[in-house]
Design a protein that fits this description.
The chain is an alpha+beta fold. The chain has helices at residues 9-18, 33-39, 44-64, 123-137, 141-151, 163-167; strands spanning 2-7, 20-21, 26-29, 74-79, 85-86, 100-103, 107-108, 112-117, 156-158. The strands form three sheets. It has a four-stranded antiparallel beta sheet. A three-stranded antiparallel beta sheet has the order 3-6-5. Helix 3 (44-64) crosses helix 4 and helix 4 runs antiparallel to helix 5.
Length: 168
Amino acid sequence: MRVYVPLTLAGLAQAHQRGELGPGPVTAYGVTPGLREWYVSDDIEELEYAALSRAAAASLRMIAGAPDAARRRVVVAVDVRDQDASVDPDRALDATSLGEVRIAAAVPLSLAAAVHVDADDAVADVSAAAGALGAADQGDDDAQFTVDGAEDHELLWYGVQEIPNLVG
């Protein structure tokens, strides 16, 4: 199963240094039954893109909670065994948990397939979105518009061998 692990640039640097994502449990996003039902598509590429988008939103939340974090969303695509990614049935009705899975143990970075990171031109919008996230969660339409502005930026694809350049 391909899962998408949300991080910050600092979190990616730590993972690179340790050689693993974790410690466990690791929260990630994947094509779960709930995501399939919500997205209503049989196209696996579209479903995986939806999971990647959910992870990007989780990365934004991490950035919002860390004022000193670089304002670029980071998602690591990792291939894990299906049985290693479990869905929490108690969170099935929580819209924020769509596609969310837990991996009990740390995930070796050698299982990573790619890294997705915002381009430099997204920094201003990601920064504004991080600042507006709390108000958006409270139903402020203007703040939600600002958050959506960050989501308009596509994450760039990087090979795992490029991690040193991203965190350097």
